[in-house]
Structure of Peptidylprolyl isomerase:
Amino acid sequence: MYKLKCISLLFAVLAVVSAAKAQDNVIDEVVWVVGDEIILRSQVEEQYKNMQYEKQKIEGDPYCFIPEQMAVNKLFLHQAGLDSITVSDSQVMQDVDRRINFFIDNIGSKEKVEEYFGKPMHELRDLLTEMVRDQSIVQEMQRELVKDIKVTPSDVRRYYDIMPKDSVPFVPMQVEVQVMKLHPFIPQSDIDNIKARLREYTDRVMNGETEFSTLAILYSEDPGSARQGGETGFTGRAEWVPEFADAAFALNDPKKVSKIVETEFGYHIIQLVERRGDRVNVRHILLKPKASDTEKEKSIAKLDSIRNDIINGEFTFEEAVTALSQDKDTRNNHGLMVNPRTGISRFEMADLPQEIAKAIANLQPGEISKPFIMVDQKMGRDVAAIVKLKTRVPGHKANISDDYQMIKSIVENKKKGDFIEEWIKTKQKNTFVRIKDGWQNCEFKYDGWNIKQ
């Protein structure tokens, strides 16, 4: 989904860049004015091309549908200004950094991105920042409008009872999985070697021998920031793990390098780039200890012994997880995994880590897999694991008893969508709009535009 969002933004950027070029080379024209905001012909034309390229559905005449979509967004932005709805700079900058990295990965290099858009990177970053900020504010405004909308169990039952039978959604097979993880032992000598390398990098920076950013590009094992010379973008304290945040926010001199910082991800050195109030932009270099094959085999053997003891009734899987698992996200929940996409414990097979999906494929509920090695996506390192299949729910038509939360979400989203639709209709009547001659003969989705001649 993130990749699709980035692709859509890529085309949106192209639209704005092309619109800017059009203004430089030809006389553009204003086709809509919404309050104090304008919509240009060139923006509509480019958006039309992009929607055709992406095969997006266009409802009716594109020269009616597209500018109206743009106008609706401006209603939300205007209301957000009145209500002082903002988004954090750090949130925007992190999103911009991710998207620029996406462009670099897909187009080939920073230089090719600049050539592709016909703009130097700092101008492209400014353009992206404005667009991402507007998108984020619109989304935040919509969330604010519907934040108090709730549905009751009776609302859910009533909706389900009147839903046409052919509209009841099909729920693919879902599973609940419990996991136990062990981190293979890392010898102290390996950790000492990593710290020695980081101390060497610090000396090279402090002696003026090498730029910190160059070392980050060459050696950091955090791929997201390494491409940017180790820069994280402006970030708030709460968005980092405590050990990293404490070290980053303690820095005051951009010429200095922090002491070595240990986190769950590995070992870091950090350099201050800039501080803005309660946000800070830093560079860092991350090195991760790597377990040897021998230590992985020892962890596998230990888990195999634990599995046998569970099967023989010495203790339960849940007791073993609580006492021995090194996965802090599940240890205190009897190992039960939570789907980050839905916030509940059920997963479709495609939502599970590949190694876990493979391990439970042939298990019956209550059975425990043999031990295996998997990559912990959060930490980016190999761990040993066993999993227990708690439940398997076959694919079926949704019903209240098994799928209450899913149906509740459908009802809640519909209620919120209806509210937003009514809000738009009310707001448009109180917003003065001018539409250029030749662009007014439309069957708009919202027919209550307060159009001034």
Summary: Residues 249 and 306 are 42 Å apart (CA to CA). The longest helix spans residues 400-429. Confidence is low (pLDDT under 50) at residues 22-26. The radius of gyration is 27 Å.
